[in-house]
Structure formats: structure tokens, C-alpha cells
Amino acid sequence: MSDCGIRPTAQRVRIASLLLCEPQHLSAEQILANLRQSGARVSKATVYNTLNLFAAHGLIRQLSVDGTRAWFDSNVDAHYHFHDLASGALIDVPVPDVEFSRLPPPPPGTEVDGIDLVIRLRKKAS
Amino acid sequence: MSDCGIRPTAQRVRIASLLLCEPQHLSAEQILANLRQSGARVSKATVYNTLNLFAAHGLIRQLSVDGTRAWFDSNVDAHYHFHDLASGALIDVPVPDVEFSRLPPPPPGTEVDGIDLVIRLRKKAS
DNA sequence: TTCCTTGCAAAACTTTTGCATTAAA
DNA sequence: TTTAATGCAAAAGTTTTGCAAGGAA
Prior knowledge:
The structure is a homodimer. Chain A is of the alpha+beta class.
């Protein structure tokens, strides 16, 4: 963490270890609740500050999947998502599982910064 | 509009003609401002009610592109989007411009409801 | 000490809701 | 006349900000 020029305070270390020990999709509120349950003294403002800081340094990725809130993804490798509409769950889809045989050329003066792919899932009818 | 069982009130007709006369991506606030500029008497609550109503009936589509607000797309045909990170602009990408040669199978008990594809664009470096 | 970070509360924003009034059928 | 939609203001939910106090270097 200090590699990035981020000062490793107690709160930041706890947030980092919560997110980075395994791939997860968490909201700010979930992170706050989780930290407090495990006895940490953290404020909501610090959680948001820290998540924004981590995202700015590329340690985590912020997702816009539903309009309701931001989700923070500890997997910063390129990948895509399933979104289960019934449960709201997010499931990672590795890059090799998707292959594009055609993509539109970016408009003049622009280049592709990244591709966000969300495959929405519903309960099977049949 | 009344085909869908929606009562065509003055406000709804104005919102519909603003959105549906040409393909557009607008926020609720933009729609409200636009209507008031053209002399309409509309409240914010009615704009939101109407947009949610139209979306529920499949007349428009709600997009989650950035976390900041919802965008309402008057193009309900299947399609994808470019998202210009510099300007925030959304540009439609027609379905035939994208071709998937591989997609992951949906998890057991689920089926694909839809695919949201957003190609993020930045200013070309070179 | 000096600078950065935290916590708290309040503010800012988007979206929803309650309720009396108004308009549509 | 009956039912549904509107407008306003207030509420709800998420995220940001201001500022005094606390902690790291």
C-alpha cells in the first residue's frame, strides 16, 4: 500500500485487508458494517475517502451496475460481470470466457479506455 | 401512448415527444429543464414518475453508466454504447457492430436477460 | 512540529413519497 | 362523479465536505 504513496493508517489497512484478501464486490455501507462488527473504529467519511483513494490508485475498481449505489471490486484485472437481477449478486466473468469477433472502431480522436460488459441474469423460465 | 394503458396527460405527452421524437440520452434534470424552458408547467416529481412509468412499459430504457445519475435512453431497440469519459457523452452502438464469438454459459437456473456493453473512450494519446 | 488523516455533523445530490389539489374519463 | 395524475414539500438514500481533534513522520 505504501508503495503507492498511500500512508498506511489503521483504517486503511483494515479496509485493504477486507477487500483485498479475496475477490469481492462490496458497497461502502457493507464495508463500514463489516469493519464495525469486527470491532474497528471507523467513520463513514473515512470509508468513502479510502475507497476513492484506493480507486484513484488502481487498487480497486468502482462499478456502476445498478443506479442505487457504487460497488467496489477488489479484482482490478480486466474482467466482466454477471448480474443476477433476482439477488443483486455480481459474479466475475474472466476475460477468456468472452471473445469479440467484431467491435466498432472508436470515433476519430478517441481510443478505447476499457470495456464494461454486464450480462444480466434472470431466473430460468422453463 | 394510450395503447399501453397510460393516460396521456399534458405532461406525459410533452415528456414523450421530447424523448421519442429523436434518439436521445437525457437525465431527469435535463428533461425538467428542457420542458420548463419551453414553457411547460411540470414538477420534478412528475418527471420522475413519468420516466419510471415509461421505463416500466418499455417505452424508454434506463441506463447505469456512471454512478452519478440515471440516463434515459429513448432507443429501446437492443444496442450498446460508447461512453466518452472526457465529455460524458453517450453514443449508440448498433447491435451488428458488435459480434461475440464466445460468451460464458449462464449459471444453472438462470438465463440471460440482456447484455449491457459500454465501451469507454478517452482522448487519443498519439 | 508539520502535514496528513480521522470523525462527526452538516451539506449536496438524486430519487421517492405523502397528501391536498387538479385534471382526465 | 369517480378515478388517477400533478405539484409541492418533505423524506430517504448515497456520497461529499468543512472543520476541529488526533496520529504519523
